[in-house]
Write a structure and sequence with these properties.
156 residues, alpha+beta, Immunoglobulin-like, five-stranded mixed sheet, four-stranded antiparallel sheet
């Protein structure tokens, strides 16, 4: 029977620990939190979806109901979603649909480390021809945002 010396056992444990840590960091890098923030500046309630795709593959499909704008002039619904397996710089195609209103945009997962992660802002705004929807893309640093708290937050 062959016995391990303490030195051999420590070497084996060290190699195993380095491998495990490398695996953990690889897994954590592949998960990104994306904030979906829908802001309604109209006097009407709206319901719709915000979808995120990568290379035609659906990653997130979020149904959103947002109340009419409050006394501060808007209402906000924010939702955090985790996107798995997306490397930094991966392009995300975003589509927001609320009734007859549709907007699209593209975002990449490349926010600097000073931010928590990417945010997709969906703005429902009044126009002379009725409400319109826009998609704005940025990076965020807090959840819920101060805008959401001021606008009567509804957090999912």
């Amino acid at each position: 029977m062959r016995y391990w010396t303490r030195r051999k056992a420590l070497q084996a444990a060290g190699v195993g620990l380095v491998g495990a840590l490398a695996g953990c960091s690889a897994l954590s890098d592949s998960r990104t939190t994306v904030l979906l923030a829908v802001n309604n500046y109209t006097e009407s309630r709206h319901a719709g979806t915000v979808g995120i795709e990568n290379d035609g593959r659906e990653i997130v499909q979020q149904y959103v109901e947002i109340p009419a704008a409050g006394p501060d002039g808007w209402a906000t619904v924010e939702t955090e979603s985790t996107v798995d397996g997306m490397p930094t710089g991966a392009p995300l195609d975003v589509k927001a649909s609320f009734g007859d209103m549709t907007a699209t945009g593209q975002h990449t997962l490349d926010c600097s480390t000073e931010y928590t992660g990417p945010v997709i802002y969906v703005q429902i705004e009044p126009t002379d021809d009725g409400p319109d929807v826009r998609v704005n893309l940025a990076c965020y640093d807090e959840f819920p945002s101060s805008e959401a708290v001021q606008g009567g937050i509804n957090q999912s």
